[in-house]
Design a protein that fits this description.
GO terms for molecular function: acyltransferase activity. By secondary structure, the chain is an alpha/beta fold. The protein contains nine helices and nine strands. Helices cover about 50% and strands about 15% of the residues. The strands form two sheets. The protein has a seven-stranded mixed sheet with strand order 1-8-7-2-5-3-4, sandwiched between helices. Helix 1 packs across helix 2 and helix 5 packs parallel to helix 6.
Length: about 250
């Protein structure tokens, strides 16, 4: 199924790719990518000869009905791995465990250090609990990846994609073996994560924002709510003035 989906994506969107030579022909490696679109997890595997496994929320695999079964089959076909995300701590541990199992089999594991899609196309601070821990516990090299223009292919909230040609830049592998055995040190985890994010920023050309994307999404939502309330209040005030004017003219 991966061959079918990957071939269809390449034929339809013609994604360009740089740095394929940085993907090892065999053995474990971690692909750490920026995250602009839902389609990132499909375009990256499409241009690789090797299977790459990403983490996906369990709901994609357990939804009822024909649509649910088709969705589950699609995600399995493109190498998505279901993880129960109920409970923040449990979800993190489950993701790390799944990643280590993939790498122990000598396969490629894909991860988005930002933890969620960028709300505005900028690059946000990486979360150290996943990427850095997996890198230090597995000893696998980390390969930085930049997805480019995938948010234009499928903007957030849109179901049907646009025919835009996306790009993928793959950087040179990063070796963090010097930190092995230090996965319990939060300063080391932060340092590893920041080094990877810097490389992704160089590859993508994105503006870097030193806050988590989840916090940025909350700020955007709060701002939208504030503006909506202000517009509602202004509209109500305008109606009140119109009523007063009508009454005054009677």
């Amino acid at each position: 199924m991966k061959v079918s989906i990957g071939g269809s994506l390449k034929l339809a969107f013609r994604p360009w790719v740089e740095g394929l030579e940085n993907i090892p022909a065999d053995g474990p490696a971690i692909l750490a990518s920026n995250h602009l679109s839902f389609s990132d997890s499909f375009f990256l595997p499409a241009v690789l000869d090797r299977k790459v496994t990403f983490i996906a929320k369990q709901e994609y695999f357990t939804s009822p009905g024909v649509k649910g079964k088709l969705t589950a089959a699609f995600f399995k076909g493109v190498g998505q791995l279901p993880v129960d995300r109920s409970g923040a701590r449990g979800a993190g541990e489950a993701a790390v465990k799944s990643a280590l199992e993939v790498l122990a089999r000598g396969e490629l594991f894909g991860i988005y250090p930002e933890g969620t899609r960028s709300p505005d196309g900028r690059l946000y601070r990486g979360k150290p609990g996943g990427l850095a821990r997996v890198a230090l516990l597995s000893g696998a090299p980390v390969i930085p990846v930049a997805m480019i223009d995938t948010e234009k292919v499928q903007p957030p909230g849109k179901v049907l994609p646009k025919m835009v040609r996306p790009g993928i830049r793959i950087g040179e592998p990063l070796d963090f073996s010097r930190y092995q055995g230090m996965d319990g040190d939060r300063f080391i985890l932060r340092s590893v994560t920041d080094e990877v994010m810097y490389k992704i920023m160089e590859l993508s050309g994105q503006e870097y924002v030193d806050i988590y994307a989840t916090a940025a999404k909350r700020q955007i939502a709060d701002e939208a709510k504030r503006k909506a309330e202000e517009e509602k209040a202004a509209k109500a005030a305008g109606l009140d003035k119109a009523d007063q004017a009508d009454q005054g003219g009677k």
